[in-house]
What does this fold into?
Amino acid sequence: MSASTDGGSVVNLGVLGWLNRLMLWLIGLAIVTLIVLKYVPLIYENERLRREMQVDQDAVHRLETQVNRNQVRIEALRNDPRTIEREAREQIGLAKPDEQVVTFQTRQR
It folds into this structure.
């Protein structure tokens, strides 16, 4: 715990040197603590936004899948007479002249 001066003599700072180093450590610790306190909320916000983005990406993927299914169905309805016939039978209950339509209803509790 000594410091040298220009003359080459050694000056013993004793407790003052120890307190000086302690103060520098405390100032450094305070600076690090302030940096951590400033950026921790930003880190949590970033994680929250990443989770939201993942949920949104999953929703977009589900919607894109649904759009693809709908496009396939539209094409089938435009170009495939069997698909049109099946839809007419299911949705409207249409039948060919020699057929009978039977519908089943579920019991209400």
Q: What stands out?
A: Strands lie at 2-4, 10-12. The mean pLDDT is 86. The two ends are 91 Å apart (CA to CA).
